[in-house]
């Protein structure tokens, strides 16, 4: 039985695409006969506070679905203060180094990036010629931070670029969730081994037995309510004449969204809070279309919701540009509006017709054929 260590900053019970993605990878490898260990911080995302049951602990070890999960101390914070965020990353990096000093590390290690600094810590302290260090890149930092307005092109940004290049250089293999990520990596290191590893979900697809018929088009957003998603601005910009907007999730903009709804009771905007992934799958089936927005087009980003919703047979309205837009169009999964253009978004919405059962089944069939987690993992196995 081959040992694999996965190092990540996010893992269940934390919510979001990152934790789901890494758990699914760990679970998939464990089911294929690998002995999987996970290194992750004490759960704190997205609240920035250690979850109940883990408070006051320096570490926590558990066996979950046959996976040994080592949770390490972190100075938890989701503050907008860059110094506090840096302290959080440094604290987890310190815990990782302490773990490396006192534990035998297997030859194959999968390292999640971002955060860049955490990935750098792992690649620097675990570098050995015989060790297989696999870097799983889900977003391109610092480029994404620059596009989101979190960074400026100054000395700090140049330092992050140097860290990014070091990480790619020292990795034995780079996994990228998008073609844009892999293009960027090979533009820096043309001979670097790469592998397209999409965020495909793995769950039993529901049987689609009926369509949806509503007087008003029922649009749903489900996920993180963060700055990058721009749900607060979406609430402000939509034309509500013939639609309803339903929101599920939590995050930094939650209170602003709740305040907007309470001060605009005349608008058909509804916030339903946070629900589990399993509950959400059942709830989503009652809506006409799921919207996937990004406040700004982010190079390298492909929201994993695309593959999740396609497996459910749920039509999508994509409003984020880039590679995600191309996937929606190529596989006929719904509609696309010009990134950042709310007039075009409202125009596209006004032309949306609800999908029939047959059309929803067609989306689901496309997902099962082209977004297959098991097929992808089987192709990855020879690299491990």
Secondary-structure map with pairings?
Elements: E1 3-7, H1 17-31, E2 35-41, E3 59-64, E4 67-72, H2 82-102, E5 108-113, H3 116-125, E6 132-137, H4 143-147, H5 155-170, E7 173-176, H6 179-188, E8 194-196, E9 217-222, H7 231-237, E10 243-248, H8 254-263, E11 269-271, H9 277-284, E12 289-293, H10 305-312, E13 316-319, H11 322-330, E14 334-336, H12 342-350, H13 357-370, H14 373-380
Parallel strand pairs: 1-2, 1-5, 2-4, 5-6, 6-7, 7-8, 9-10, 9-12, 10-11, 12-13, 13-14
Antiparallel strand pairs: 3-4
Briefly characterize the structure:
This protein has helices at residues 17-31, 82-102, 116-125, 143-147, 155-170, 179-188, 231-237, 254-263, 277-284, 305-312, 322-330, 342-350, 357-370, 373-380; strands at residues 3-7, 35-41, 59-64, 67-72, 108-113, 132-137, 173-176, 194-196, 217-222, 243-248, 269-271, 289-293, 316-319, 334-336.
Describe this protein's structure.
The protein has 14 helices and 14 strands. With 384 residues, it is of the alpha/beta class. The protein has 2 domains: 3-201 and 372-383, Rossmann fold, CATH 3.40.50.2000; 217-370, Glycogen Phosphorylase B (Rossmann fold, 3-Layer(aba) Sandwich). The strands form 2 sheets. An 8-stranded mixed sheet has the order 3-4-2-1-5-6-7-8, sandwiched between helices. A 6-stranded parallel sheet has the order 11-10-9-12-13-14, with helices on both faces. Helix 3 (116-125) packs across helix 5. The mean pLDDT is 91.
* Portion in strands: 15-25%
- Give the N-to-C terminal Cα separation: 12 Å
Q: What structural class do you assign from the helix and strand content?
A: alpha/beta
Helix and strand element order: EHEEEHEHEHHEHEEHEHEHEHEHEHHH
Radius of gyration (CA) equals 21 Å
Q: Helical proportion? A: 25-40%
Give the total of beta strands: 14
Shape: globular
What is the strand arrangement across the widest sheet?
Answer: 3-4-2-1-5-6-7-8
**CATH architectural group of the largest domain:** 3-Layer(aba) Sandwich
CATH topology grouping of the largest domain: Rossmann fold
User: Quick check: average pLDDT?
Assistant: 91
The DSSP helix count reads: 14
Ranges where pLDDT stays below 50 over 5 or more residues in a row are: none
Count of folded domains: 2
CATH class categorisation of the largest domain: Alpha Beta
Taking the sheet with the most strands, its summary is: 8 strands, mixed
- Kindly report the name of the CATH homologous superfamily of the largest domain: Glycogen Phosphorylase B
């Amino acid at each position: 039985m081959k040992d694999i260590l996965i190092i990540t900053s996010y893992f269940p019970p934390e919510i979001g695409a990152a934790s789901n993605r890494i758990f699914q990878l760990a679970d998939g490898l464990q089911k294929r006969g690998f002995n999987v260990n996970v290194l992750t911080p004490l759960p704190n995302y997205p609240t920035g506070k250690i979850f109940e049951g883990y408070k006051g602990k320096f570490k926590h070890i558990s066996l979950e679905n046959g996976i040994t999960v080592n949770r390490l101390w972190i100075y938890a914070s989701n503050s907008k203060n860059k110094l506090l965020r840096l302290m959080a990353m440094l604290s987890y990096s310190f815990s990782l180094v302490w773990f490396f000093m006192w534990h035998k590390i297997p030859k194959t290690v999968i390292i999640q990036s971002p955060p860049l600094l955490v990935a750098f810590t792992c690649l620097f302290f675990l570098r050995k010629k015989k060790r297989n260090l696999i870097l799983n890149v889900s977003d391109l930092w610092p480029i994404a931070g620059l596009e989101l307005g979190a960074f400026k092109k100054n000395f700090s940004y140049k330092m992050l670029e140097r860290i990014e290049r070091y990480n790619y250089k020292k990795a034995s293999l780079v996994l990228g969730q998008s073609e844009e990520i892999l293009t960027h990596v090979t533009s820096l290191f043309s001979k670097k081994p790469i592998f397209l590893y999409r965020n495909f979900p793995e769950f039993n697809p529901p049987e689609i037995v009926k369509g949806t018929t509503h007087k008003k088009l029922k649009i749903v957003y489900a996920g993180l309510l963060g700055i990058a998603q721009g749900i607060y601005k979406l609430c402000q910009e939509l034309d509500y004449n013939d639609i309803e907007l339903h929101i599920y999730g939590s995050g930094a903009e939650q209170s602003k969204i709740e305040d907007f709804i309470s001060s605009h009771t005349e608008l058909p905007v509804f916030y339903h809070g946070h629900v589990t992934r399993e509950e959400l799958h059942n709830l989503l089936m009652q809506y006409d279309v799921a919207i996937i927005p990004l406040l700004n087009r982010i190079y390298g980003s492909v929201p994993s919701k695309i593959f999740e919703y396609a497996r459910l047979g749920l039509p999508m309205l994509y409003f984020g540009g880039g590679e995600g837009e191309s996937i929606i169009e190529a596989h006929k999964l719904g509609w696309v509006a010009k990134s950042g253009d709310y007039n075009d978004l409202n125009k596209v919405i006004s032309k949306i017709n609800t999908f029939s059962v047959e059309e929803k089944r067609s989306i689901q069939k496309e997902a099962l054929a082209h977004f297959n987690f098991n097929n992808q993992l089987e192709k990855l196995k020879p690299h491990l």
